[in-house]
Description:
By secondary structure, this protein is of the alpha+beta class. It is about 45% helix and about 25% strand. It has a three-stranded mixed β-sheet with strand order 1-2-3. A two-stranded antiparallel sheet has the order 4-5. The radius of gyration is 14 Å and the shape is globular.
Amino acid sequence: DEIWLKKxxxxxVRVDILHEALCPFCILQDWRYHEARxxxxxxxxxxxxxxxxxxxxxxGIECQHGPTECVANRFFNCVQYxxxxxxxxxxxxxxxxx
Length: 98
């Protein structure tokens, strides 16, 4: 995962994490992200960006772990946008049971 830190106007640090559905390394890091997010909630706002190592090519978006990852990444971006309060539970469930 790659992490970018951006200072926010309200005094919190912004942490955006690039994540990939079906990525073995991301799955291993999943629990660490959730624990860190809870521990740092007072000083940091965080979000997951479902893109990871995907590449935008002339043929379309190509994901490191194949077309299923691309579909899952799009799904999780939609979940994060429409149901932000459920995104962590769903991410955790998907990563551990898929």
